[in-house]
Design brief:
The complex is a heterodimer. Chain A has no helices and eleven strands. Chain A is mostly beta strands. In chain A, the strands form two sheets. In chain A, strands 2, 4, 5, 6, 9, 10 and 11 form a seven-stranded mixed β-sheet that branches. A four-stranded antiparallel β-sheet of chain A has the order 1-3-8-7, with no helix packed on it. The radius of gyration of chain A is 13 Å and the shape is globular. In chain B, 0% of the residues lie in helices and 54% in strands. Chain B contains no helices and twelve strands. Chain B starts with a strand and ends with a strand. The chains are: A mainly beta, B mainly beta.
Chain lengths: 114, 118
């Protein structure tokens, strides 16, 4: 199994630009989580999907952030417009509900907004 | 609300020393899971162990061992004979089962930076 795949691994953009982060979950995993990691705030859960449906988006910072999961094998996290304070590492994690309880994390996307 | 506290921000040890990373948690759930993850300098998050609230047996895996005590709400992690490759940030996490929608939401501690020096 290839594990959770995230792309791009690194993204550098200018303030105001749209940024799209992508995640491919492990096959058969039906829950997907987006996290953000910063030095100041640690690991924060942004949004969580179960069976492609957004269940909890209370961690999404503001309307500039949106996430979708159009099918079981793909999810996106979009920031529009991006701001320097969005600079962070964004992780995608997945798990197979009722089978495992540990979340498997992707390698993360390091986002830098100038 | 759930909470995980890792009071040790940074620990430095010399190789071959034993080191214990502390984790204290708060939850009102009777059924929950506790986890440890390792984040090496390369940045990925690596799952180490899962423990459910009904299983208080300590676990040993090679140089790693975990001590789960419900009475003190603690889930401590010990590395025996530490090695330079153990240098990483270690996160303790607590899961909350999502009644709506299913699945488990993780609450992470702030992490403990472990530095193992020669």
């Amino acid at each position: 199994d290839a594990g959770v795949i995230q792309s791009p691994r690194h993204e550098v953009t200018e303030m105001g630009q749209e940024v799209t982060l992508r995640c491919k979950p492990i096959s058969g995993h039906n829950s997907l989580f987006w996290y953000r990691q910063t030095m100041m705030r640690g690991l924060e859960l942004l949004i969580y999907f179960n069976n492609n449906v957004p269940i909890d988006d209370s961690g999404m910072p503001e309307d500039r952030f949106s996430a979708k999961m159009p099918n079981a094998s793909f999810s996106t996290l979009k920031i529009q417009p991006s701001e320097p304070r969005d600079s962070a590492v964004y992780f995608c994690a997945t798990l197979a509900t009722l089978r495992y309880n540990e979340q498997f994390f992707g390698p993360g996307t390091r986002l830098t907004v100038l | 609300a759930q909470k995980v506290t890792q009071a040790q921000t940074e620990i430095s040890v010399v190789e071959k020393e034993d080191v214990t990373l502390d984790c204290v948690y708060e939850t009102r759930d009777t059924t929950y899971y506790l986890f440890w993850y390792k984040q090496p300098p390369s940045g990925e998050l690596v799952f180490l162990i899962r423990r459910n609230s009904f299983d208080e047996q300590n676990e040993i895996s090679g140089r790693y061992s975990w001590n789960f005590q419900k009475s003190t709400s603690s889930f401590n992690f010990t590395i025996t004979a530490s090695q330079v490759v153990d240098s990483a940030v270690y996160f303790c996490a607590l899961s909350e089962y999502m009644l709506t929608g299913g699945g488990n939401k993780l609450t992470f501690g702030t992490g403990t930076q472990l530095k193992v020096e020669l």
